[in-house]
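Let us practice reading a record.
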Amino acid sequence: MSRKPKGERHIGLLNGFAAYGMWGLFPLFFPLLKPAEPVEVLAHRMVWSLVAVALALLVLRRWRWAGELLRQPRRLALIAVASAVIAVNWGVYIWAVNNDRVVEASLGYFINPLVTIAMGVLLLKERLRPVQWAAVGIGFAAVLVLTIGYGRPPWISLVLAFSFATYGLVKKKVNLSGLESLAAETAIQFLPALAFLVWLSADGGSTFTSEGPGHAALLATTGLVTALPLVCFGAAAIRVPLSTLGLLQYLAPVFQFLLGILYFREAMPAERWAGFALVWLALTLLTADAWRSARRSARAPRADISNPSATIATGTTSAVRNADSVSPGPDPVDARP
C-alpha cells in the first residue's frame, strides 16, 4: 500500500481538524440567527446550501453525475430518503441548540457509533466481536442512566443518533461523493423550503427582511457554513487514513459538550455525568478494538509478501474476519448538524 507524502498527511490532518472543529463550534453560530425560529433557519439552510454547493460544483465543473443520477430511479429514491432524514437531523439540532440543549445534542453524536453498530446487527444481520457487544451493552445502560437523570428519555440525543445513523446507511447505498450528494439532497429540499419561506414572508412571519441586512446576511451564510466544513472534510478524506478520520469525528461532540457546560452553563448533575461516563467507556472500547483490528489488517499484507505460500490461507482468514466484524462506528460522512 502506498503511503501519502508527509506534507500531504499534514494538510489532510489540518483539514480534518478544520472540518470537525467547525462542526463542533456550530452551537455558537445558530443562536446568532435569533429571532428566526428553528423551522425558518432550517428552510434557509436548505435553500442557501444548494446555492453554495451548486457554485462549488460549477467552479469544479462536476456536473456529469447529475445526468446519470436522473436515469437511476432507485438511487433517486434513496437520495430522497437521505434528504428527509438529514432534514430531521438538522431541524432537531437547530432546535436543541437554540433551546439550551447543547449537551444533550452532543450526546447524540457520541452515541451515534453505537447506534450504527446496533442497526448493522438488526438490519444487516452483521456479527459483532465480543468487545463490540460489550460496548453496545454499556451504551444501552448509559441511555437508561441518562433517562433516570433527565426524568425522561434523552429524545434529542436519540433522534440525532438514529437519524444520522440512518442517513449514513442510506448514503452508503447511494454511493455519491460529498458535494454531489449534498447537492442532490438539497435540490430535493429546495422547492419545499423555498415555498415555505415565500409563505412565511407573505404571512408576515419572516425575519429575513424584517430584522435588517445583517440578519439576512447571517441567514444566507447558513449555506456557506454547511458547505465549508464539507470541503475541508473532502480534502482530509483523500489524504489521511479512514481510521484517523474515525478518531477525528469525536472532536465535534467533544467541542459541543465543552461549549454546553463551559459556555452555555448547562446543568450536569451527577447522574448525567455517570451516563456520559458510560458512553465514553463504550467508545473507548470501540476505539481500542478498532485500533487493534486496523493494526492486524496492516500487518497481514506484509506477512503475505514475506511468505508467498501463505497468501491464499491469509486472504481467506482475513475475508472471514472482515465478514464477521462491524466497524466501530460510521464512516465519517459528509453532512453534520
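A brief commentary: Confidence is low (pLDDT under 50) at residues 303-332.
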